[in-house]
Write a structure and sequence with these properties.
about 250 residues, alpha/beta, Rossmann fold, Arc Repressor Mutant, subunit A, 12 helices, elongated
Length: about 250
């Protein structure tokens, strides 16, 4: 869960902004269930906000937007409908505050399109709780908060991930020279199913279980079960170790 709740709980009684006199309605439009839970919990901890609804279906979102005129927290990587088109329609029905959570691979062109269609804030999923609440309050007052700062943060994370993959690839070369594919490694490789290899490939791209399921067109529960089987086969206890081992043994391509 990317939103930090601890920093909010310590300051629950402090006002976010003196101008926030009326309770602010917020509509959550995000595909990740855990992220929705975190947003809901964060907002409901403060008397200044109330959640008017949660949905990813276009018709439901527009109905709530027309009736409640809330601030909208929108998943920029939405797949149930075109997020750009949704932003445009939200503006047409009178919504003024639309915060878009940038997709993982967002670039300047993506930011430009959301800006052009009417987003009023463009944020990273790793925004802290107190900052998010303050910006929701400011958007409800009509402020325009779109910046490109999020692009630099995402680029830095992608660069770190690339370095990790390069290090894993280098370590794999060294290990291969030392072991020349030991019998144990060959045995584990032979036992991996094609679907398990595909899941490892997707996880190596930094995708969540839900995103892996969507990419491979399988059930999220299948992804979870396959991961459990993989962990037992590889004798590891987490995704990162499994991916590093798979790249080191050349079961998947970095």
């Amino acid at each position: 869960m990317a939103i930090a709740l601890a920093d909010v709980q310590l300051q629950r009684s402090s006002p976010l902004k003196e101008d926030c006199k009326v309770k602010i309605g917020v509509l959550i439009v995000h595909e990740c269930p855990l992220f929705r839970v975190g947003l809901h919990s964060l907002l409901e901890q403060h008397s200044d906000f109330h959640v008017v609804g949660e949905s990813t279906h276009l018709e439901d979102v527009l109905v709530l937007a027309r009736e409640k005129r809330p601030v909208v927290l929108l998943d920029g990587g939405l797949t149930s409908t075109d997020p750009l088109d949704l932003v445009q329609q939200l503006r047409q029905v009178g919504v003024q505050g639309i915060m878009v959570f940038a997709p993982p691979a967002a670039d300047e062109e993506t930011l430009f399109h959301f800006l052009r269609y009417g987003a009023t804030a463009y944020e990273d999923h790793y925004i802290c709780g107190e900052e998010l609440l303050e910006k929701v309050c400011r958007m409800s007052l009509g402020e325009y908060l779109v910046t490109s700062d999020v692009l630099f943060a995402q680029a830095a994370r992608r660069e770190r991930l690339a370095r990790i993959r390069q290090d894993a690839s280098r370590d794999a070369c060294l290990e291969r020279k030392r072991t020349q594919d030991s019998p144990c490694s060959v045995s584990v490789s032979a036992s991996l199913l094609s679907e398990e290899r595909a899941i490892l490939e997707e996880i190596a791209k930094g995708r969540t279980n839900a995103q892996v399921a969507q990419a491979l067109r399988i059930n999220p529960h299948t992804v979870k079960n396959r991961l459990g089987s993989l962990f037992r086969k590889l004798n590891v206890c987490d995704r990162t170790t499994a991916v590093v081992m798979a790249m080191r043994e050349h079961w998947i391509t970095p």
